[in-house]
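User: Just a sanity check before I run the rest of the batch. Below are the structure tokens for the first item. I only need the designed sequence back.
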């Protein structure tokens, strides 16, 4: 009964008051928890040629700054993280119609951002194969329950709770929209969340709020098929080596949305708007280990063997929020329904297709 009372109080709040609270959160939180972008670099050089590389170039020159500070900027890392959040929201498959009892759904969600990393400094090496645009995709399974099945109350029947979860491991063979040549790819996605949705008695509108967790890991590894050129203090050199990248995101989100359901026969059209607040981090580590040529002869790797190791790490701390619009379509026949929903935020879009069974 306490839960029913709390849900009742929540539904009585004016929509304008809810959006004012969200706007205040967006203004106040960054004041106390500002967004942070950090960059660390370690460079190790072994061999006789290291004496011909000025120290400032080893640490602050051609290697550290341009590789991440100018390529994987904080804007790009933020875009990758928010892309994953938008995909996670769309994977919930809550819909815009009140489910009278229970429903199971299986779907697939993709998301793609428009924000890109800048041109690669190492364009002439296999590092050019590393991703420059945020993309997220995974299947998901959802379960929806009407709270009236658990709480004997007419008011509770106006509420749905939808959870979703699907651990997903991928490789270069099953990543859509990403073409990475000569690169070993592996990773995993573990996204989950719960959304509570309220359906007023005599209105096509519905209001939802949810809590979501977005977890993503991506590993990339490649090697140079041939020596490639780079410069140190104006001198042309060539190097030959291996490259590794590890991307990770851990983001907790709170979402609020409003949808309107319009049904004509077996077709339902559900437009809506939403807002999400995020807190967590997106991190990236890049390493390269390579043989370097001599200063005198760019093709000479053997007379004075030297090895250069570079490890760059960056982290973007999310205390961010964004709004989005949605448009869903539902085709229903008996207990089965086919649903697709499109979500669009600033510089990112997501699409979901799911099959649902109501029982």
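Assistant: Here's the designed sequence for the first item:
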């Amino acid at each position: 009964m306490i839960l029913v009372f709390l849900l009742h109080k929540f539904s009585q709040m004016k929509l304008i008051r809810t959006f004012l609270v969200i706007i205040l959160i967006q203004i106040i939180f960054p004041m106390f928890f500002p967004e942070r972008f950090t960059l660390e670099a370690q460079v190790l050089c072994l061999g006789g040629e290291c004496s011909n590389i000025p120290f400032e170039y080893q640490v602050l020159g051609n290697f550290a700054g341009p590789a991440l500070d100018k390529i994987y900027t904080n804007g790009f890392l933020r875009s990758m993280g928010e892309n994953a959040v938008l995909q996670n929201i769309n994977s919930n498959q809550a819909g815009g119609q009140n489910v009278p009892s229970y429903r199971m759904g299986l779907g697939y969600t993709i998301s793609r951002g428009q924000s890109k990393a800048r041109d690669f400094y190492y364009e002439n090496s296999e590092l050019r194969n590393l991703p420059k645009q945020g993309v997220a995709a995974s299947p998901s399974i959802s379960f929806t329950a009407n709270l009236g099945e658990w709480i004997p109350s007419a008011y509770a029947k106006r509420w749905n709770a939808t959870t979703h979860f699907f651990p997903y491991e991928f490789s270069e063979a099953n990543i859509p929209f990403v073409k990475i040549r000569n690169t070993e790819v592996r990773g995993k996605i573990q996204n989950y969340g719960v959304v509570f949705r309220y359906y007023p008695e005599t209105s096509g509108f519905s209001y939802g709020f949810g809590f979501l967790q977005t977890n993503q890991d991506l590993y990339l590894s490649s090697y140079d098929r041939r020596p490639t050129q780079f410069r140190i203090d104006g001198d042309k050199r060539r190097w030959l080596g291996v490259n590794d990248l590890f991307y990770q995101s851990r983001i907790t989100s709170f979402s609020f949305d409003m949808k309107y359901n319009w049904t004509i026969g077996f077709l339902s059209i559900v437009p809506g708007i939403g807002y999400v607040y995020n807190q967590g981090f997106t991190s990236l580590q890049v390493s390269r280990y390579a043989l370097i040529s001599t200063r005198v002869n760019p093709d000479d790797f053997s007379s004075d063997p030297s090895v250069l190791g570079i490890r760059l790490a960056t982290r973007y701390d999310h205390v961010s929020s964004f709004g989005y619009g949605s448009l869903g379509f539902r085709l229903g026949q008996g207990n089965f329904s086919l649903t697709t929903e499109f979500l669009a935020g600033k510089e990112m879009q997501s699409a979901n297709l799911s099959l649902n069974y109501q029982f």
